[in-house]
Prior knowledge:
alpha/beta; five-stranded parallel β-sheet; three-stranded mixed β-sheet; about 20% strand; globular; binds flavin-adenine dinucleotide
Amino acid sequence: MTTSMRVGIVGAGIGGVALARALHQRGIEAHLFERAAAFGEIGAGVQMTPNAAKVLKALGVGEGLARIGFLPNAMVGRNWDDARELFRTPLREVCPRLFGADFWHVHRADLHAILCEGLPAERVRFNVSCTGVTQRGDRAVAHFNDGTEFEADLIVGADGIHSVVRDATWGRSDARFTGHMCWRALVPVAQHPLPFVSPDASFWMGPKAHPTWVAESWTEPSTREELLGAYEGWHENIVKLFERTDKQQIFKWGLFDRDPMDRWSKGRVTLLGDAAHPMLPFLSQGAAMAIEDAYVLAAALSHFGADTNAALDAYEAERRPRTARVQLEARERGRTYHLASPEEQKQRDLAFQQAQAQNPNAVGIKAEWVYEYDATRCAERFGTTPAPALT
Ligand SMILES: Cc1cc2nc3c(=O)[nH]c(=O)nc-3n(C[C@H](O)[C@H](O)[C@H](O)COP(=O)(O)OP(=O)(O)OC[C@H]3O[C@@H](n4cnc5c(N)ncnc54)[C@H](O)[C@@H]3O)c2cc1C
């Protein structure tokens, strides 16, 4: 079914632009509102696992992904001080066969850029910060800090973990600081050959630390010295890598968490991505879930046409159980990766060895159930026809 509806999307991160693209592909008018002055993603890499790669292909950016991406050979868990291999899950050879798509490493900014290709520039407004949303009959209105407002059939909050749309719709609640923080940085490989880095997705597992996070924002510039100081005593390969980080591209992040929500949509407002289900990065799924949400929401709106309530129900029915499971399992992985007690580490490493002996594809982060899912087949679950290619 086609529809003449108009959708306002607050936030033009990876989730927001994926939704704009998915709606555009289905002929639904979508307008993006972003508080930043321009599109910009922080300098960091992101893993696009097979479940996300299937959606990216359906969104018409499969070739773009191959252009910007790198295919790691395997996911490898390593011990923090002696680099001993704890597990090895093959990726490059097996993912297409087992999960129907590749496992990619990409730069966030490159991923964002390919999702934006072909979007109408006149439907993106920068420098506008959403201050709230209200319902007006069977429409919703987004309000902005410059005094303007935007009325639409649906307003989608894709405005990240500290979502204003979420607070305005469901009441304010602060995300919980987990006691974990992380650094995100880039190492320019063109200038420095890195013979000590294997072409894999590497997980270095070491004892936990409990920093105090006092900054109001959840991402802060950091320094190479601070990064190296925190990893004193770690294996020389990881230290050598950190010594080569680009000094301009080192950020530290507080890791915040929320419990799964019972409902995302109220009236003509809904949520997507981190605004709906922020998760810890230990399954590498936050952006992937936002991309899956985007595809399913666009498919549901396209299928149910004027019946927006039915579309939002179908969207939540498809997405809430899955994202809740990923949120909770990511939280559990965080605990396992940072075990401090040598005895607990020994038990964990033994469990890795046993799992690997049984099935090397099901060891390590144990995410086969995440990768198998195919959001592009949601059509079969609520009966839409496949989307036409973007023109
Ligand atoms: C260390 C780390 C590693 C990660 N690794 C991976 C990985 O390997 N794979 C993966 O899939 N995910 C990963 N993630 C998760 C991923 O980065 C996020 O889940 C994803 O970026 C969420 O996208 P989003 O569009 O929902 O939100 P965001 O990226 O937060 O985008 C929100 C956008 O909304 C804008 N905005 C906010 N408030 C307003 C407002 N009031 N008005 C207008 N605009 C507003 C912001 O400026 C921003 O552009 C990782 C996260 C971390 C912290």
